[in-house]
Amino acid sequence: MRLSASELSRFGEEIGAQLRAPAVIGLSGELGTGKTTLVQAICRGLGAKVRATSPTYALVHHYDAGATPVYHVDCYRLRQPEEARDLGFDDMMRERAIILIEWPERAGGWAPPLDRHFQLSYDDDPTHRVVEELRLA
């Protein structure tokens, strides 16, 4: 689907409002295609108390969304999948958290199985993004 910035925000808020823990959402796409923007909207839909920010350097951010823990993981800086071993995915899964993973493909088998996976890409119109939900095996 082709979405403007406001439509992408509404789409993410709807996803967040419908999510039930535990859940793992993957977000893939080139730099600047709106992955973090979509995470921010999902977090708003979940009722997160603070604005989600990109965890590119910290790799993992935790957000308070009531009784459900929400983790935002950015795997962009991983050079090899083995580096994801220490991100705490096992602990997040034990917490029955909602886990939002940017660049999940970079974590390889260390990432938990995805419940949903979205691919974001540029549109010919620079004010829009293309969002495709990928089928999971």
Explain what the structure shows.
By secondary structure, the protein is an alpha/beta fold. The chain has a domain at 22-108: Rossmann fold (3-Layer(aba) Sandwich). The protein contains 3 helices and 7 strands. It has a 7-stranded mixed β-sheet with strand order 1-7-6-2-5-4-3. The protein is globular.
List its salient traits.
137 residues, alpha/beta, Rossmann fold, 7 strands, 23% helix
Task: Output the structural class.
Answer: alpha/beta
The count of DSSP E runs of length 2 or more, i.e. the number of strands, is 7
Weakly predicted, low-confidence segments = none
Looking at CATH, the homologous superfamily of one domain is P-loop containing nucleotide triphosphate hydrolases
Classify the fold: give the CATH topology of one domain: Rossmann fold
Radius of gyration: 14 Å
Oligomer: single chain
Count of discrete alpha- or pi-helical segments spanning 4 or more residues: 3
Which of globular, elongated, flat, extended, rod-shaped describes the shape?
Answer: globular
